[in-house]
UniProtKB/TrEMBL annotation:
Protein name in UniProt: Cobalamin biosynthesis protein CobD
Keyword Membrane (UniProt): yes
Major localisation: membrane
Family assignment from sequence similarity: Belongs to the CobD/CbiB family.
Keyword Cell membrane carried by entry: yes
Function description: Converts cobyric acid to cobinamide by the addition of aminopropanol on the F carboxylic group.
Keyword entries, A-Z: Cell membrane, Cobalamin biosynthesis, Membrane, Transmembrane, Transmembrane helix
Amino acid sequence: MTLVESPVAVVLGAVLLDLVLGDPRALPHPVVGIGEMISSLEKPLRRMIPNVRVAGVALLVITVGVSYALAASLIYAAYQLAPAAGFVVSLYLAWVSLAARSLHLESAKVVRALQEGDLPAARVALSYIVGRETAELDEPEIIRGAVETVAENTGDGVIAPLFYLLLGGPALAIAYKAVNTLDSMVGYKNDRYLEYGWASARFDDLANYVPARLTGLLMVLAAPLCGLDGDGAWRILRRDGRNHSSPNSGFPEAAAAGALGVRLGGANRYFGKIVEKPTIGDALLPLSQATYGGVVRLMYGSEALLVAAWLATVALFNR
């Protein structure tokens, strides 16, 4: 097998490109196309299928199926043209499915504003990455929002797409991104999307079931390597992993809270109403800018461990 045909080269190249360059926003992005497809299908599906929930199922099947088929066909066609072309297409699709660097950069804007003493700017920066209202938050609550976002999205923005990339190549990673995009666009519990987005939200829960729990375990293993509390991560993961409205998000948040020695969850304001969420972790340490630095190390450490474990498995089976 040549380098351009090696899945190892694709994975390592994609991870390195993501770590160094982040999301290639200046280039055509599959997620943008997926989002446009989801938007364009809503009116015709609602019109053609009277049962709104069934229309939502059709949206899910079409979006994920077309995304996977187009990615797989593009890779196949490129390899038929030339091995180097196939490698480049595979590498690009794998790269754009990952989001560690982008998650770091976007969340770092919040802490950078705090470092500059600009609390209003920090609130605005946080509002771009969380759903809660941020206009009245103090610094510890801003930090909590940033830490929760990095911890949760380590699961569905970093480990999950990498998991599917390792499992089934770039086409499966793109299919996962389609599921994730569907949930972010139609997976709301409001009048418009409660029924139409039901299938997308449930399938997103299913697709993230294993990656979320894997993320929690990776965080436990990564914690001592990152100068954090591995025993605490394991204890809080087991105790509080299900203290979340999402069936999945609590696992990475609990592992992170335990590793960092902080309490996450609690009261958030949405559309003018206070929503009390279950707490996760123990407040052994205050929420501070150092807490944010710890969760970022935990994110990168978890990603590195998953890649290392996969490389070891590949080497073992290729002996």
